């Protein structure tokens, strides 16, 4: 079977399963948080100022930034969807190399940085605090199987959401381009239509999804050992 067909089928299956599992609604905000944090990090790298990040119960988020020049909006707007897709791949890559503990530590550190420096609405701060507590518990728990299950759960949710969110953006860009978030921001700065940027985000997400699944189910090479 074609690798791309396998990737799509596995992504669809993962989307269905992750939504049936308990607490999946809560953990879907991991992808939102990473998306917004990538905006914030690139804002700082672009000599801008991050005013705040807000996370919401409907899994949406916003990063309010001040930038000295309009062109700096390009890397900042690119960072959200692309950063979230690459991060999902990173989680699977570390799992394939038995680095679940490192992955959970990174997630905890990022959530702590977000809570301390950027996230300023009540729901977002409560979510970050809860996620930090759960991730620390997963790292110190005696049973590595529980830790690995928690890590894979988050990894699959990040992977699914990193693909579904740009897919929804493509739909919005077709129906109402000015409401297409990051794609609309890029269109305003570059003159390239929002739908084109949305498609770019989706292509990157699908590619990262394919590579992530390849990390989990390697073919033609010996699978690397898992941490125990």
Q: What features would you describe in this structure?
A:
The chain is mainly alpha-helical and 228 residues long. It has a domain at 3-10 and 70-216. 73% of the residues lie in helices and 6% in strands. It has helices spanning 3-20, 24-27, 29-45, 73-96, 100-118, 122-140, 144-175, 181-190, 194-216, and strands at 49-55, 61-66. A two-stranded antiparallel sheet has the order 1-2. Strand 1 (49-55) and strand 2 form a beta hairpin. The radius of gyration is 18 Å and the shape is globular.
Backbone structural class: mainly alpha
Low-confidence stretches: 220-228
- In N-to-C order, the SSE pattern is HHHEEHHHHHH
* Biggest sheet strand line-up: 1-2
Work out the strand percent: 5-15%
Continuous helix count:
9
Please report the total strand number as a whole number.
Answer: 2
Radius of gyration: 18 Å
Main sheet summary: 2 strands, antiparallel
End-to-end distance: 32 Å
């Amino acid at each position: 079977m074609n690798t791309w067909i396998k990737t799509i089928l596995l992504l669809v299956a993962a989307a269905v399963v992750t939504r049936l599992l308990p607490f999946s609604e809560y953990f879907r905000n991991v992808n939102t948080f990473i998306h917004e944090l990538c905006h914030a990090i690139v804002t700082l790298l672009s000599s801008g100022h991050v005013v705040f990040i807000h996370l919401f119960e409907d899994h949406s988020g916003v990063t309010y930034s001040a930038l000295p020049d309009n062109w700096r909006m390009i890397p900042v707007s690119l960072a959200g969807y692309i950063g979230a897709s690459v991060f999902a791949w990173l989680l699977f890559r570390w799992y394939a190399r038995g680095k679940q503990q490192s992955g959970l530590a990174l997630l905890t550190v990022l959530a702590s940085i977000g809570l301390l420096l950027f996230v300023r609405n009540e729901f977002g701060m409560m979510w970050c605090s809860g996620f930090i507590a759960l991730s620390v518990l997963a790292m110190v728990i005696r049973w590595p199987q529980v830790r690995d299950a928690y890590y894979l759960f988050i990894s699959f949710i990040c992977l699914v959401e990193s693909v579904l969110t740009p897919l929804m953006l493509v739909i919005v860009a077709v129906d109402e381009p000015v409401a297409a978030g990051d794609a609309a921001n890029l269109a305003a700065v570059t003159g390239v239509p929002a739908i084109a940027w949305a498609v770019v985000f989706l292509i990157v997400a699908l590619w990262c999804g394919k590579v992530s699944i390849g990390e989990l189910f390697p073919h033609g090479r010996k699978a690397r050992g898992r941490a125990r």
